[in-house]
Amino acid sequence: MTGEVEQRLAERGLLIEEYADFARDAQPGAVGFIGVVQADPGVRAIAYVGSGTPPDRRDRFAEWVERKIDNYLECGPLRDGWEQRSSDDGWQLWARPDDLEAAEPDTMPEGHPHI
């Protein structure tokens, strides 16, 4: 059973999939990550959460994903500190436990125009 936000993301074409080994492979302690690549038109996004993530944390991860995807679509990768991947020129962003609790900043980074 998925939460309301995860269902909303699915309606937008973004499914959150479980992945058992990503945290051990790349980012110990991470809850999950989002990857984005430019597509025609728009962007294509993927999201993975660690398998076995408790439902309440998965719901908070889905909220984080929705917020970060919306920020990306509105402002690009600079606002949230996305990392560019060399494999496909896409962008990725890792979620750690503290990220799921953190409030969104009210301001844009200096020098970055708000769309």
Topology:
Elements: H1 4-11, E1 16-19, H2 22-25, E2 32-38, E3 43-50, H3 55-75, E4 83-84, E5 91-95, H4 97-101
Parallel strand pairs: 1-3
Antiparallel strand pairs: 2-3, 2-5, 4-5
Helix pairs in contact: 1-3
Q: What order do the helices and strands follow?
A: HEHEEHEEH
Return the average pLDDT rounded to an integer: 84
Q: From the alpha carbons, calculate the radius of gyration and give it in angstroms.
A: 14 Å
**What is the general shape?**
globular
DSSP strand content: 15-25%
* Parts with pLDDT < 50 across at least 5 consecutive residues: 105-115
Describe the sheet with the most strands.
5 strands, mixed
**How many DSSP-defined strands?**
5
User: What separation lies between the terminal Cα atoms?
Assistant: 36 Å
The helicity comes to 25-40%
Number of helices: 4
Largest sheet strand order: 1-3-2-5-4
Classification by helices and strands: alpha+beta
Explain briefly what this protein structure is.
This protein has 115 residues and is an alpha+beta fold.
Describe this structure in words.
Helix content is 33%, strand content 23%. The chain is built from 4 helices and 5 strands. It has helices spanning 4-11, 22-25, 55-75, 97-101, and strands spanning 16-19, 32-38, 43-50, 83-84, 91-95. Strand 4 and strand 5 form a beta hairpin. Helix 1 crosses helix 3. It starts with a helix and ends in a 14-residue tail after the last helix.
